[in-house]
Design goal:
The chain has four helices and seven strands, in the order H-H-E-E-E-E-E-H-E-H-E. It is of the alpha/beta class. The chain has one domain: Trna Endonuclease, Chain: A, domain 1 (3-Layer(aba) Sandwich). 23% of the residues are buried.
């Protein structure tokens, strides 16, 4: 999710972290209070910071997780998802999207728009 939406959706972010802990992920870093923040990347053209919502490791592989919730600025979200997908493939990692009831169609449409139909969102 983009920065403006993070303050409104901290509950879902915490629920996602609990889900990941329960499924065996370790070294969880999240862009929220109480957790170490994941590494940020700066876009040269605009100077915008791109920070994954959650990063974790499992079986020696790094995972990037994004929260797929409806937003006012889908274009920013699309570019963030494309960047994180490319970054994860470059570093032999895995990029996944976590979504919840009421946001499935939005997330699927976004993935279709940016041609990431091979990604199946994690539904919590």
């Amino acid at each position: 999710m983009i920065k403006i939406d993070k303050s409104e959706n901290t509950d879902f972010l915490e629920k996602s972290i609990q889900y990941l802990e329960a499924t065996g992920f370790e070294d969880i870093k999240a862009d929220t209070d109480g957790f170490e923040s994941p590494k940020s990347y700066i876009r040269k053209e605009t100077g915008n910071k791109i920070t994954p919502d959650i990063t974790a490791t499992k079986n020696g592989r790094k995972y990037f997780f994004e929260i797929g919730l409806k937003t006012e600025k889908p274009r920013l979200l699309k570019s963030k998802w494309l960047f994180l997908d490319t970054l994860s493939r470059m570093n032999s990692g895995i990029f996944r999207i976590i979504t919840t009831k009421g946001h499935y169609r939005f997330t699927d449409t976004m993935l279709e728009d940016i041609n990431l139909t091979n990604k199946t969102p994690i539904k919590i």
